[in-house]
Specification:
- It is built from 12 helices and 16 strands.
- It is an alpha/beta fold.
- Strands 6-5-4-7-10-15-16 form a 7-stranded mixed sheet. The protein has a 4-stranded mixed sheet with strand order 11-8-9-14, with helices on one face. Strands 1-2-3 form a 3-stranded antiparallel sheet.
- The protein starts with 11 loop residues before the first strand and ends with a helix.
- Bound molecules: 5-S-methyl-1-O-phosphono-5-thio-D-ribulose.
């Protein structure tokens, strides 16, 4: 079973207030220098937080999306209700009686806001999934008072938050079963507590394995260009006293050849129906090297990252990010002016390279996904 962690704090959580509440999240752009939280109170600031990677990691982005939907509903409500009435709505449980046309306008605007939020980042399917969850809540609340529509969106966002931690612990328990005793484990990017609400996916597997076996060692790829492995993964593992060695992205085959890596575990941003997996740029290079050295390569992800609507990885939209992520390090240009830059943020690992996909319901071979998960 999973061990109780020292750091059970949520990366992102809804804070209830007299006027409905707001989203509170760790600012991941500041890790490892400072551990700060920011309050997000509007749809636009949630869009920016996702786009600028204050919140990042597929499951955390999903929860941010669910929060953003609730925030926008509150914003729209505050445009309809006078300030005094708004307080009564929440404090005295008084419904907000609106006209039919006000309601129609509310739902029309809400839908537009949800779609806008979904356009903040394209690759992690968890954003689309969580906004889809909130759309279902809206659909089932259409006959209710608008105050109750907002309350339902808030409650559902909190439910998704709590589910995320339980799901990750289950992924951890299943995944720990495939980690050999004393293993050297390679991971890429950050799929830890900070990429989720808590515990993590790939790092959840590592945490659960470490709870059983204190002799495991982790190798963390630095993960250029944004350095999530160097900055965030090592921060999390050091904090939990799990032995970790930082390596640069090009080093993995050195450590594989020298028999220091026994297994690879990474997270995922979107998994197609055939098991092809989009994850942080550089992941597929690790998978190809692992295949060459006969090292099992596992993907750890919740079912909400599996997109059965797309057949293969060819249909996954890969986010292209700003060229300055490549050209600049600590505010300083590291290459000649005039050089051409292409900065894809993710790549697709072919299903043939994946030994198993570790989910909250068990470990599946890529070819089993459709049959096991299709309802
Ligand atoms: O661009 P990011 O930092 O949001 O991307 C996240 C990743 O690609 C991670 O590798 C992670 O494994 C997927 S989320 C747990």
């Amino acid at each position: 079973m999973t061990q109780e962690l020292q750091h059970e704090e949520k990366t992102i959580e809804w804070c209830k207030t007299q006027s409905g509440g707001y989203s509170l999240m760790v600012d991941q752009t500041k890790i490892p220098y400072t551990y700060e939280k920011v309050e997000i109170k509007t749809l636009n600031s949630m869009y920016d937080a996702i786009k600028t990677m204050i919140v990042r990691g597929a499951p955390a982005i999903g929860i941010a999306g669910a929060h953003g939907c609730a925030l926008f509903a509150l914003e729209l409500l505050s445009k309809i209700a006078p300030k005094e009435a708004l307080e009564d709505i929440w404090n005295k449980n008084i419904p907000l009686n609106t006209t039919e046309s006000q309601k129609t306008e509310f739902f029309k605007e809400l839908e537009k806001g949800f779609d806008y939020l979904n356009s903040s980042r394209p690759t992690a399917v968890n954003l689309l999934w969580a906004i889809g969850e909130q759309k279902k809540i809206v659909e089932n609340s259409k006959t209710l008072d608008l105050r109750d529509v907002c309350a339902n969106l808030i409650e559902h966002a909190i439910k998704l938050e709590n589910d995320d931690i339980k799901i990750n612990k289950s992924i951890g328990d299943y995944g720990a079963q495939v980690i050999p005793k004393g293993a050297g484990i390679l991971t890429h990017c950050n799929a830890g507590a900070l990429a989720t609400v808590g515990y993590g996916t790939a790092l959840g597997v590592i945490r659960s394995a470490f709870a059983k076996d204190k002799t495991i060692q982790v190798f963390a790829d630095e993960t250029r260009p944004r350095g999530q492995g160097a900055k965030i993964t090592t921060f999390e593992l050091v904090r939990d006293n799990i032995p970790v060695t930082l390596i640069t992205d090009g080093m993995c085959s050195y450590f594989m050849r020298n028999k220091m890596i026994d297994v690879v575990v990474v997270g995922a941003d979107r998994i197609a129906a055939n098991g092809d997996t989009a994850n942080k740029i550089g992941t597929s290079t690790v998978a190809i090297a692992a295949k060459y050295y006969n090292i099992p390569f596992y993907v750890a992800a919740p079912k909400s990252t599996i997109d059965l609507s797309i057949k293969s990885g060819n249909d996954i939209i890969i986010e292209l990010r700003d060229e300055e992520e490549v050209t600049m390090v600590n505010g300083k240009r590291i290459c000649a002016e005039g050089v051409k830059i292409i900065n894809p943020s993710f790549d697709v690992t072919d299903n043939s390279l994946i030994a198993g996909i570790i989910t909250e319901d068990g470990i599946f071979k890529p070819e089993e996904l459709k049959q096991k998960l299709q309802k």
